[in-house]
UniProtKB/TrEMBL annotation:
Signal peptide, first to last residue: none
Organism of origin: Aquabacter spiritensis
Superkingdom of origin organism: Bacteria
UniProt name for this protein: Glycosyltransferase involved in cell wall biosynthesis
Similarity annotation: Belongs to the glycosyltransferase 2 family. WaaE/KdtX subfamily.
Keyword Calcium: no
Length: 271
């Protein structure tokens, strides 16, 4: 059994070629582009990808629209343009698909975040699991940002990794992107905080995605949360062992939380 590939893009000329080249083991690569104004489309087509366009609404809608594209295969590897599939992961995916049962709907994969050519093994909060191999028609994507994936069937976890290059377009771009993210996240969190917190006991579930959702819901009710995030990543997770890259990344993650808090406070009139 083989699989197709879906890549979401918007002005990704700095990333798209390397992403597609990491997928040379696949012959059905599709790009869903959010009306880029750079050379993303040309570069993708030059490397053999089929490019489709759709105006961006939110991340859940975009991924669901992407999964409805005319793929050749039932299984889809879903990537962002700043992600690269390692040869080890490619081999593992092929092995899984050769023997996968009908009950399996999705596979999660860990990412290695890269800054200054260094893997942020500790300061990035690794390991975090991301749905990246999906059986079409068996997974629903919800939540406008930092999406939730609802699988109709078993979810498996792969041992291989995706390489993630969130700074390939520079530090300025990272802050611009997270400024946009923080506005969406603040809006979503205020809506979620209007309902009761999930039971803390669910933080001990064996499902890493569910565990992460519960811990995040509790974290966002804590005072001084940005400082808590920095202490967690840099001290408790020993992010200092990642060198200067780890220190800077922990600071940037803290700044993102500050942006979210500030935007929620502004929306609430300073409360």
């Amino acid at each position: 059994m083989s699989c197709s590939v879906l890549i979401l893009t918007y002005n990704e000329e700095a990333n798209i070629a390397d992403c597609i080249r990491s997928l040379k083991w696949r012959d059905d690569v599709h790009v869903l582009d959010s009306l880029s104004t750079d050379q993303t489309r040309r570069l993708a087509e030059d490397l053999g990808a089929a490019v489709h366009e759709r105006a961006f609404t939110n991340y859940a809608d975009q991924r669901m629209a992407g999964l409805a594209l005319p793929f050749r295969h039932d299984w889809v590897v879903m990537l962002d343009a700043d992600e690269r599939v390692t040869p080890e992961l490619a081999e593992e995916i092929d092995g899984l698909l050769a023997e996968v049962g009908a009950g399996v709907a999705m596979a999660r994969v860990r990412r290695k975040d890269i800054l200054f050519d260094r893997w942020l093994r500790r300061s990035s909060g690794y390991p975090t699991w991301f749905p990246r191999l999906i059986r079409r028609g068996r997974v629903r994507v919800e939540r406008e940002i930092n999406e939730d994936y609802i699988a109709d069937g078993e979810v498996v976890h792969l041992s291989g990794h995706i390489l993630h290059h969130p700074f390939a377009k520079g530090i300025d771009w990272w802050f611009e992107r997270h400024n946009r993210y923080s506005a969406m996240e603040a809006h979503r969190l205020m809506a979620e905080q209007a309902v009761s917190l999930p039971p803390l006991g669910l933080a001990f579930t064996r499902d890493p995605a569910a565990r992460r959702r519960v811990l995040k819901a509790w974290l966002y009710r804590m005072p001084a949360r940005p400082l808590v995030v920095f202490v967690y990543l840099y001290v408790l997770r020993m992010g200092f062992l990642d060198g200067r890259a780890g220190y800077l990344y922990a600071l940037m993650r803290m700044s993102y939380e500050v942006m979210i808090d500030a935007k929620m406070a502004m929306a609430r009139g300073g409360r």
